[in-house]
Amino acid sequence: MSELTSTKALRRLCYAALVFCLLLIAAYCYQAFRQYAQIMPADNADQRAFLLTMFYGHFVTKLGLLLLCALFAIFQLGGLRQGDLFPRRNVGIIIAAGILAFLSSIFEANVGQIYKPMSGSYAIEIKDGAIAILLLLLLFAQVYRIGGNAARENQLTI
Questions:
Q1: Which domain holds residue 135?
Q2: Smallest Cα–Cα separation from 70: which of 17, 7, 11?
């Protein structure tokens, strides 16, 4: 009975996460397109390319992370329907989310440069947290993989 209620709770949590991710995607798209008009105009093509790269890199990585979270919830729901608590496809999603989180953190640290006047030189900043996020998500992916393998092995021994 407790296994059934925990599966129901996990299913509800996945649906709530999916709805939350979709709402965040809509809000983030609205916010990004409003902020696009605030990008400082650049005099030369190199500056303009840098500013647009920072803006679109920030936008695409954040959007990608939200889409990966939604995909994780969808695959988790599919796995729960099939009786698999740790779907194998989610390991790849966690690894991809780690890489995107690393890139997103780099763009996040540098996105402020596109809204303020430049002195003409650009330096890309990488914060320590970017590497920590990547390593933690890669570690979580391995723990998830081990948990999935243990659950499958446990089903075979019974």
A1: 2-157
A2: 17
Task: Tell me how far apart the alpha carbons of residues 2 and 22 are, in angstroms, rounded to a whole number.
Answer: 30
Q: Which residues of 59-91 are buried (b: 16+ CB within 10 A; e: fewer)?
A: bebbbbbbbbbbbbbbbbbebbeeebbbbeebb
pLDDT in tens, the chain (158 residues): 466 688 888 899 999 999 999 999 999 888 888 877 667 666 777 777 777 888 888 899 999 999 999 999 999 999 989 888 889 899 999 999 999 999 988 888 877 776 665 555 666 777 778 888 889 999 999 999 998 888 888 877 75
- Distance between CA atoms of 92 and 67, rounded to whole angstroms? 14
Q: Cα separation of 102 and 106, whole Å?
A: 7
Whole-prediction pTM: 0.80
Q: What share of the chain is helix, strand, coil (3-state, %, to 5)?
A: 80, 0, 20
- Provide the number of structural domains found in the chain: 1
Amino acid letter for position 47: Q
